[in-house]
Amino acid sequence: METDRNLYDTVDALMQEGKGILAADESDATAGKRLSIAGLLNTLENRRAFRELMLTAPALEDSISGVILFDSTIRDTTSMGLPFADLIAARGIIPGIKVDRGTVPVEKFQGETVTEGLDGLTARLKDYYDLGARFTKWRAAFTVVPKPSDEVILMNATMLARYAAMSQAAGLVPIVEPEVLYEGEHSLEEAQEVTEKVLAWTGDLLERYRVDLRGCILKTSMVLAGKSAEMSSPEDVADATMRTLHIAVPHSLGGVVFLSGGQEAKQATRNMQAIAKLGKEPWRISTSYSRALEEPMLKAWAGKEEHAEDAQNVLVHRARMNGLAQKGIYNESQDL
Ligand code: 13P
């Protein structure tokens, strides 16, 4: 087992200034949705080509500190036979792994879900450590409308905390992700109310389950009006998000990263920039985007070998823009 010092070192490496974490951990089924953007079928070969395109992109390490992988990817290799985790680590990027097993409906709680994956987790964590992972992720999901029940918030927060403690015991930094979903017509105020409650309960349960907060990262959604409502301005998003974090999130956490949640790529960059512009916060703050990084790349690629280099450039460009936004020096007029 690793000492806390190693957990803190991993947190420091993940939360480097100007860098974000690439969430390339979609399940095999969700990878199919991504591949369809490039006009490709969801085959093992195409999933491998998609991941290989991202993870071999030149200079990715200049703006990406860590990559979250899915189980089948951490066990897979590039077309040249190099394990993906080794490829990432050789580039000075930290390999991570999604360890939850997805959401399932909660009986008698219409429309609510709980995340599964605790059974057998200790053995899986050891396996992932041996495969090269140094951090993990577990995602729970909540709608704004209908409002989640106290019972299901507590259930998910408890599992996040239990998972985080198990992960730390295995020498792996947990990224605790209670996502409040962007889909819907809800107002920014409604999103704020749900996010505050979900984050407060999550923080409380992490403390009660004796998770070392300094060796733990929170991955949260930004607070913004629903995707089908009028788009919130970056200033409103930044203000509501940071107000919520200050009310609900313990200051001793190792870091806070944002998911993109289905925001358009530049919108996610702009919102990160507005948050950074608010100035110094008690936490180190950065991004851990999936769709806002991958989708522009997949469009540019269109599944064609002759577009591969352009697609990699698009990915690295978005990661760089997010890195500048993390430092509060993003200039949209220079964004392609
Ligand atoms: P998005 O940035 O696409 O929301 O994905 C982040 C993530 O890790 C979801 O679990």
UniProtKB/TrEMBL annotation:
Pfam families (UniProt xref):
Glycolytic
Keywords from UniProt, A to Z, are:
Glycolysis, Lyase
Q: Does the keyword Lyase apply?
A: yes
Q: Name one GO biological process term.
A: glycolytic process
Q: In which pathway does it act?
A: Carbohydrate degradation; glycolysis; D-glyceraldehyde 3-phosphate and glycerone phosphate from D-glucose: step 4/4
Q: Which GO terms describe its molecular function?
A: fructose-bisphosphate aldolase activity
Instruction: State the similarity comment.
Output: Belongs to the class I fructose-bisphosphate aldolase family.
The protein's name in its UniProt record: Probable fructose-bisphosphate aldolase class 1
